[in-house]
Specification:
This protein has 72 residues and is of the alpha+beta class. The protein has helices spanning 13-24, 50-64, and strands at 2-8, 29-35, 40-45, 69-71. It is globular.
């Protein structure tokens, strides 16, 4: 499954890249893209694991970029 989410308060392109690199390392993430210009996160994971993977993505993103929120 592939879904896109709005990012609220991603501060810079470097922050977006750092976030993308860390999220890509999570188990279950098939692909992830963080676009600073469009303020969008696109996540791909297996259908049956997607909700669990999304929760871990949200938790890790909050640790890496505390000011940034993934709008679901």
């Amino acid at each position: 499954m592939r879904k896109s989410f709005k990012l609220d308060e991603i501060d810079c392109a470097n922050c977006a890249r750092k976030l993308q690199d860390e999220l890509a390392r999570l188990d279950g993430v098939d692909a992830v893209s963080v676009n600073f210009m469009t303020q969008k996160l696109t996540l791909s994971a297996a259908d049956e694991l997607f909700d669990d993977v999304l929760e871990r993505v949200v938790t890790l993103a909050a640790r890496i970029e505390p000011d940034c929120e993934i709008v679901r």
